[in-house]
Amino acid sequence: MLVPMKTLIAIGAHHDDVELRCGGTLAKYVNDGWHVVYVVATTTPHYALWPEETESGRCRSNAEVIELRKAESRRGAAALGVTEVEFFDFKSLYWYKDGTHDRRYFDGHALSVEEFRYLNERAPGREFIVSATHCPAAMAFLRDFLRERAADIVLTHFPEDAHWEHYATGAFVAAAVRELVAEGAAIELYAWEPAGRNLRAFAPTHFEDITATLEAKCRAVAGFTSQFKELRGPEADLWLDWVRNRAREYGALAGVPCAEPFMRFDVEAHPKKGVRLAETYDAARAKLGLA
User: Fold this and answer.
1) Residue 6 burial by CB count (10 A; 0-12/13-18/19+): exposed, middle or buried?
2) b/e string for 213-223 if b means 16 or more Cβ within 10 A?
3) Which residues contact 27 (CB under 8 A, 6 or more apart)?
4) Of 3, 124, 204, 213, which residue is least crowded by CB atoms under 10 Å?
5) What does the pLDDT look like over 225-253, one tens digit per residue?
6) Looking at the DSSP assignment, which residues form a beta bridge with residue 192?
7) What is the four-CA torsion angle of 195, 252, 220, 27, rounded to 10 degrees?
8) What is the pLDDT of residues 105-123, one digit of tens each?
9) Nearest partner of 206 among 155, 248, 171, judged by Cα
10) Under CATH, domain 7-287 is a member of which superfamily?
11) CB count, 10 Å around CB of 246?
């Protein structure tokens, strides 16, 4: 009898989040025979200008940047061996004035009526990612997505990540997983290393040895030239050394050459009890011998 293929789903807020935070793990699980699904939650058009745009003053439109970033994600996933790439297309809270690199943010105090109308009616995407957890249609969409793919493991953002769309995505994913567990699903939920300065709250409970897949991760990250202008020139490999060194630092904690860290959520079966992290910071440090 054939053993059913297990499924791992990684859900990042933006294009490049998945590669940077768990790319080595995805490649490892692909090599181990798992079905791996790569998801980008938002349509964010953020990018770094190319020299010709700076010189001409003519910048890509929001729609052009979004399609460029999706192409980079597809190439990044391919570098990891991932064949299923999905874009949820939830709206981001920042965009550019068309034809310019003047980035605007959704701000209830500073946003004009015209800007809000543009963001609400013309900017591409469905519901705003920051309100998805409280939108019944969005929650039903994500529950159906995870249920249809029979997710065994879900990876996403840490709930105390410094970026507002990161923690919004993490909360959205955690809420959907919680409801599926309440229905009887057996899903393990893990958060990857957060961006920004909130590392003290992040206490890894699991490490994945990515020694064999670290260079696949670097190849995936190297394709995001719209995000990191350092990757466009001859010093790209020096920039990627940050990725390698980060993996070595976590590998030293795990007792392997290179690793990626994750913190497991305890997902209560009762939907009203919410989602909590598996351990306190101090307990996790004690387990790692760092207390």
Assistant:
1) middle
2) bbbbbbbbbbb
3) 80, 81, 82, 210, 213, 216, 217, 220
4) 3
5) 877 777 777 778 888 898 999 999 999 99
6) 262
7) -110
8) 776 666 677 777 777 776 7
9) 155
10) LmbE-like (3.40.50.10320)
11) 16
The two tokens of residue 85 are 């790439």
Nearest to 181 by CA among 276, 268, 279: 268
> Are 44 and 169 a contacting pair, CB within 8 Å?
no
Q: Which amino acid is at 44?
A: T
Which ranges constitute the DSSP H helices of 86-231? 113-117, 136-148, 164-182, 214-222
Q: Which two tokens stand for residue 26?
A: 């995805």
Q: How many CB atoms lie within 10 A of CB 63?
A: 14
Number of C-beta neighbours around residue 235 at 10 A = 11
Beta strands in the chain (DSSP E): 7-12, 35-42, 84-90, 94-96, 103-105, 153-156, 188-192, 206-209, 259-267, 275-277
Query: pLDDT tens digit string along 18-52?
Result: 999 999 999 999 999 999 999 999 988 777 777 77
Look at residue 20 and give its three-state secondary structure: helix
Contact 224, 231 (CB under 8 A): yes
The residue behind tokens 């990044």 is 76
The angle that helices 17-31 and 62-80 make with each other, rounded to 10 degrees, is 30
- Tokens 């900017």 appear where? 123
The residues, ordered by sequence, that sit 6+ positions from 120 with a Cβ below 8 Å of its Cβ are none
